[in-house]
Amino acid sequence: MKYVKFSDFLRVVSAAGLISASLTVQAQAVNVADAEALLLTNKCAKCHSVDKKKDGPAFKVTAAKYKGKADGEAKLFTHLTTAPTIEIDGVKEEHQKIKAKDDTAVKNLIKYILSR
Ligand code: HEC
């Protein structure tokens, strides 16, 4: 077995620390202005608000529902991009499919919703 120099060991450990620190920052960063602009252009506020129930649930309620669930982001991504069947006042319809420039914009909005 080869010996690793202590200075090399430190370099590896600190590099790993830096990488995980930057991943954490990336995972938390939400561009609020972009998220709210996307809600506006898609007219989501017709049925949703951050803290009041309209035809759809408040984003705070959705955030609480998925809090701590590893698949929360993926479920919401499917919800927003595949027009699942929903029910409003007993009438079935398709949920609005989001129009966004790319998946990154949709994911940013999902992070925004989950952090309400
Ligand atoms: C015509 C009303 C309406 C519009 C417009 C609408 N939604 Fe919804 N949305 C609903 C209803 C109703 C539900 C509840 C569906 C259910 O729980 O079965 C829902 C559910 C959701 C959920 C929670 C999904 C879950 O798994 O709990 C999110 C997030 C959401 N909508 C986001 C949006 C966004 C973002 C937009 C704009 C692109 C939007 N909605 C547009 C009615 C609407």
Offer a few descriptive terms.
single chain; 116 residues; mainly alpha; Cytochrome Bc1 Complex, Chain D, domain 2; 2 strands; 7% strand; binds heme C
Structure description:
- The protein has 116 residues and is mainly alpha-helical.
- The chain has a single domain (31-114), classed as Cytochrome c-like domain (Cytochrome Bc1 Complex, Chain D, domain 2).
- The protein has five helices and two strands.
- It has helices at 6-28, 32-41, 59-66, 72-81, 103-114; strands at 85-88, 91-94.
- The protein has a two-stranded antiparallel ribbon with strand order 1-2.
- Strand 1 and strand 2 (91-94) form a beta hairpin.
- Helix 2 (32-41) crosses helix 5.
- The model has no long low-confidence stretch (mean pLDDT 88).
- Bound molecules: heme C.
Tally of individual helices: 5
Text of the CATH class? Mainly Alpha
Instruction: Please provide the count of β strands.
Output: 2
Q: Identify the overall geometry.
A: elongated
CATH architecture term: Orthogonal Bundle
Q: How many domains would you count in the coordinates?
A: 1
What letter string, H or E per element, gives the SSE order? HHHHEEH
